[in-house]
Fold each of these.
Amino acid sequence: MLQFSKYQGLGNDFLMLDGRDAASTAFCFELTPGRIQRLCDRRFGVGGDGVILALPPRERGELRMRIFNADGTEPEMCGNGIRCLAKFLADSDGDQPGREWQIETLAGRIIPRLEAGGVIRVDMGPPFLEPASVPTTLEMGDSGIPQGELVAEGEVFVVGAAGMGNPHVVIPVADVQAIDLERFGAALEVHPAFPAKTNVHFVQAFTPRHLVMRVWERGAGPTLACGTGACATLVVCHSLGIAERQAQLDLPGGPLDIAWDAATGHVFMTGPAVAVFDGVVSPDLWGAEPSMPLEDAQPPTSGGVAIDCATACTTGCQRPEACPSAEARARVAALLNTSSLDDLVNLATSSLEARTRARFQPDPGRQA
């Protein structure tokens, strides 16, 4: 039975799956792009902008985050997502304000911190401003960022770009509400100037400390918020001289406070993350399609070369004679064969009740 918790940050919502103890039967599920799409479907599934996995670390962090968009693709990072993950961890473990997590992501190590009132402040690290690191074919401009003109749907846009572990293009405009986001967001996402595609942000500066933006996320389309996008937007707007180093950025889902520290070069994002509900996925939703089992904390190897089952085996097992995930799947099968549906439901219910108690009755004696 797949247990999950749903969290949202400014309306950007995610299904959180806890696999920090990946060897336990509590994490007995197998993902495919198709299953992720069904989970995130707002009419036929649970509904969400993506799925986030908390996994054992690989590089001396406390844990590792993997995130999948609603279309099943895997981006490098998500600012709203990592805030939701931090709040999920705090709720699950009963952590108090002041708690920090060293979280490994495809964009490097990110450090969120739980503040009073459940707000999460995240050290997002320095932005990527060299064109190749974004990546983009835009040339470095006089403002110290990749910038230039792009043509999309017959219109010319003056743009700047920045990376926050994932690519962003930022377009300052006079009236952000007048922009046809569906038309231009979709076109700019796949513009040839961004070989890995890009997130797209239109922004209007009310004052140097108050910006309003609209978001088109790579792989998700229009969303209510994008944390990495807000960070990139502030960096670009400050570089272009239309914003200060710290500002409030209003997104459709609500405001974020973004600060680009001059001393360290790091970008800090502060905003909310809220629990929505806990649940268990019906086996009927899961389907019987071929699986791509998640890898364990230490990736299996073949001839000394690491095998990431979640990506290498999407079209079939690469080692059918000695499948690295066979033992884990056998444990899952044994659990299912020896447990009734009522037993599995009771197991899931007990776990969800424990998490709910931790969320609303945190241990005041727990160390931050």
Note: DSSP finds eight helices and 19 strands in the chain.
Amino acid sequence: MTLSVTKTAPVSQLNVPTVKHLPSGLTVIAEQVPVDAVNLSVWMKVGSAVESDAINGMAHFLEHMMFKGTAHLGNGEFEHRVEQRGALTNAATSQEYTHYHITSAPRDFADLAPLQLDVVCNPIIPNEAFERERSVILEEIRRANDHPGRRAFFKAMQTAFESLPYRRPVLGRTEVIESLTSQQMRDFHRFWYQPSAMTAVAVGNLPTDELIDIVIDGCDHAALFNQNKPTIHPSFESQSHAPEPSFSTVIRQDYCDPSLSQARLMLMWRVPGMNCLDQTYPLDILASVLTGGRTSRLIRELREEKGLVSGVSVSNMTYVHQGIFYIVVHLSDDHVDEVERIIIHHIANLHDQPVADHELQRIQTQVANRYVFGNETPDNRAGLYGYYQTLTGHLGPAISYPSHIRNLTAQDLQKTAQRYLDPKAYSAVVIHPTE
């Protein structure tokens, strides 16, 4: 077997991962860190964004079914073996990836890692277990629909995106989940769960070569490379992923949700996604300029000085094909108009006045340090590497993010605000607590 091996050029001595690209298309990343644990994170470039409307929710449903047994592991046996060793396992599905991970003591890693890989590669998806789990998924959807915050977010995403699949819920819709079949799920797994869509990351206190060998041996044991990709099924054809144009005017949507105790105001701008990664860094900084701590602009004026809101946050939500610069405010219904005017005034100010040097330096240090501090444990580090490798195809951005942030200038921020954050063109969603 011929391997392509890359030793990443570290920006700091904290990051020295080794990357191996196998002929099958599988990517293996490994790094030894001096923490007495090892994490294996298996990332699949498969999420709700690859689904058609007809099978929306399939990727998340499949994540649940992965733990219902393989040819070598009975239903629940994987979790039982993990718990016996005092290890931890979990999984998550998003719009653009599904992530499975296990953390164990170094001495147990060689025994448990192949089990995790077998679970991901070879689920048998029994009919009876499928029907039982369907009710679990439907209950999860009901709980999500009963949660005011999630309902508000769903409304915002449906307004932010007209055609991109990010507008749909990852969990899917009740009527779709009720119609799915176990054979559809087996076909979905066989089509999408291919080595070329898989990144396996092992980080912890074992030699790098040993980590890589354990992962490769586990993949061989799981017969990952013996799968033949079937002809695409019509229900697997996802929607167009072309970015949607910026808003050309202010688009308003008003809703009523009597379960809320306060109103929600959400303002959104369409911005670049991870396929234009360099353009996302200034937007990350601008989000922190507005709500990065008690001295940030919106928190200081809206909450600390004027007491108009109980909470305000800004996020640069970056998906692969497009992002959303997203402001959400919790406030009294009587203050919605005034607060929106103040926020838009701050957005316009970002156009007119460069961020002061002392403010920029504070925010850059804050953003860069939080990034570094949040990626020190094996599971954090493995998640970081898997996320960027899966969504961008390489590790450079995972390691160089702090330096990109520190190299931005006030002029970079101003140009970005002028280009993407139009104070006269955005989407506004207001959810009122009463009619």
Note: Residues 127-146 form the longest helix (20 residues).
Amino acid sequence: MNAQTNNADQGFKLNYKRTFIIGFAFFGILLLWQVYDTWCPTFLTELFKNSLGISNEKEVQYLVGIMMALDNLAALILLPIFGRISDKTHTKIGKRMPYILVGTFVCAVAFPFIPVLFHYSNTVGVIILMAIVVLFAMMYRNPAVALMPDMTPKPLRSKANGIINIMGYLGGAFATVVGFVFILSDYLGTSQYADGSLKPHTWAYQNIWAIEGPFLVGSVLMLISAVVLFVLVKENKIADEMKDEMARGDAVSQTTDKVDDDKPMSKANKVMLWLILGAEFFWFMADNGVRTFLNNYVIYGTHSSSVGTGILTIIGGVGSVIGFALGGLIASKIGRKYTVLGGLGLAVLGYLIWIIMTFAVGLPNGSLPIWLFVIWFVKDFGMSLVHVNSFPMVVELCNSKKIGAFTGYYYASSMAAQTITPIALGALLMAPSFDWFLLPIYAGICVAISFVIFFFVKNIKTKKTTFSKGLSAIGEAEE
């Protein structure tokens, strides 16, 4: 008995190199969604305005919301399916890799044709291609995310998830920087000065490359990320090498009841799972609602250049990367529950300040104010603490045979929120008494509800577990 306990307490050492390489999968995921979520809602706004002969963009936001929600509805159904299928898949290149490679390839081929069809005002074609991209993105998203817990012992997953998310945000940063060169608002002719007069068009106006560039760069980088992952990560070999280490990690997992591969999930662990997923639903209601309509808020609500969206994204990304780097360390000191609650509290604070400033000085007009950039940094730093710890809390509750399925549950909750929130927010924006000032109010309420739900999650602290020290384990802490 003592020998078993001592063996379980031996040092856990995170393989940083392999974790960064696995992160290339998430690099491709966030790269795709950054471009998709930033540009496609505006494409749909313009297409619906032209098709319906409407000049006021607010009148078509409910349609934009429905289309973005249908994509997420497909994801809600497909993510758990591909998670379960990949759990049961066995091939020479692994159980996750086939889905990652096929999904990435089809997405990369289809993605650049979305702006081409928009340029030629083909509404049906744009919608069909968006559906194809979403379908195959779901094929690789769940298996790609499941790679990390497949190869990382439970006590190290918050730290590993931080690294994975940093890699993802680097992918998003690539997409954002490209948006500084190819400016959507210039192409549309919607950039205005503070007095409401249109800014002069640049060389990009009505040039197809102004909208093709981000999508084409995104496709190339997605392919590169998949090739790097395939060449450097030998899934079956690593799974065999990590078998004993994974078993020792399971012995010190942070769950109410012990997880056993051969026993059904306990009632206490089920309650914990449902609380986490319920809270996750509402913080994604906030996050996706703002993200879906952010570029439209900047272009139509504040009459600013779409470059402002990129700057907000970069600043938020910096805050997120800092949070991802610190999230595991903070959780090792105060527990994952209170780290998540602290992050949600910071997000609520950010939205509250945004609401107060909006009603105090009104919507920005012609340029984005400094205070909005500060808010973006604070709220995204807070939400990074949430994301880096919440996913490990979910897969902590499952046995080694169901990682893909529980990854599917995690993303099903987020996708359920992302199915509902574009429709709900788009419909609210149609109301005569509401305007773009509604964004922070809506998001703030959703995050506050999330905070209340997550408060009832039990905080589990394992017995003191030793982690490796030295240069190879910089940043690791004792739990």
Note: Residues 13-473 form a domain with the Growth Hormone; Chain: A; fold (CATH 1.20.1250.20).
